[in-house]
Amino acid sequence: MPAPLSSLGATRSDIRARHALLTPESHEWIRLPDWPGAELAVLVSPDMGARLSLSLLRCPEPVAAPPAGAGIARFVFCLEGRAHLPDGTVLMPEDFAFQPPGCGAGLAADAGSRLAVFEWPFAARGPVPAALSGRLDDCPGRPIHGDDWVEVRKMLPEDPAFDFEVNVMSFRPGASLPYVETHFMEHGLLMLDGGGVYRLDDRWYPVQAGDAIWMGPHVPQWFGALGRGPARYLICKNFNRGPMAPRG
């Protein structure tokens, strides 16, 4: 059997000044004191120019993590297994939780669980919103620009107290974003299902489930779904704050 291309120095990952594609064959799984019991692949971080982080967690043993650091908000999306919040809420696959800075709430997870975790410096605008949790299926789907082949489900309220948006975008086979977007918000993204082609700046990347993307501010971006099945991705962006608002 031929050796996998990753063992010969090949990867689909591509890290650039204004965007990045992070693919599973290049993930480095580490342990950190802030997540005892977990293994993390930190895919997006400020070290690459981002002002947010996206990490994948896998739990070879039960995990009990403390709250996020001072001034840091956290959003957790359960991919597999079960996670537990201090109020007794159990997150099952495709459940989510928002933990605002200063809430004092940590997180636990069962062995065998997998989670996607976004963290970012929270930009307060009045009182900080309370912690919340929910199920993706309970979030209504909305067509994008009238196209019912492209749907968005928003998991955080549009209330101006929130400075972040986390959504799941769904595309029927052959559907695409209606135009190339350019804006001052940055994104972190994780492909959940299916695949397609993602344009970032002047490059087009084949993408599939398990891939992650960072898009910096003002990066031209577009996605088209390919294949026989639908494509879905989890995506975040800074929200409800203008370009001159202070951010971490």
Automatic annotation (TrEMBL):
Domain Cupin type-2 residues, every copy: 168-234
InterPro entries per the UniProt record, alphabetical: Cupin_2 (IPR013096), RmlC-like_jellyroll (IPR014710), RmlC_Cupin_sf (IPR011051), UGHY (IPR017627), UGlyAH_cupin_C (IPR044697)
CDD domains reported in the protein's UniProt record: cupin_UGlyAH_C (cd02212)
A Pfam family reported for this protein in Swiss-Prot or TrEMBL: Cupin_2
SUPFAM superfamilies: RmlC-like cupins
A single MF term (Gene Ontology): ureidoglycine aminohydrolase activity
Name of this protein: Cupin domain-containing protein
